[in-house]
Amino acid sequence: MTIATDITPDLNLSEKLQQQSYQMAQAAAIAADDRKGENIVLLAIGEVSTLAEYFVIATGFSKAQVRAISGSAEDSIAEQFGRKPKHIAGEQDGSWVLLDYGDVIVHAMMEKEREYYDLEAFWGHAPKLEIALPERDSES
Questions:
Q1: Which of 36, 110, 122, 133 is 20 to 30 Å apart from 96, CA to CA?
Q2: Contact in structure between 97 and 90 (CB atoms under 8 Å)
Q3: pTM as predicted
Q4: Residue 112 and residue 27: Cα distance in Å, rounded?
């Protein structure tokens, strides 16, 4: 598991934790991590655009893994917040699945698509936020 490390320190983290959009984005990122997603990034798109408040971007290394990441994110958000995506794109192909909740957009992508579209560069002026992953049991 890898998480982006070039993160902007967030002085208002406790305030954001109270916002449902932020909590949903965190839940999607944790779900992506649970499905072994790599290079998981949380962008505060709302700081620079009205498109959404947050983007969650994660890489999968097979179409099945991309679908598992998006499915896990969708299930987690439905379970924790009672919300379904307004729109889902790419499930059939599985190389890039997008879950659009309006305020949160989840992108699960194959490595090739992620490199080609390079959403982080396109939205490079949006702050990257820390992902609060739960502590893992160290049973071996």
A1: 133
A2: yes
A3: 0.83
A4: 25
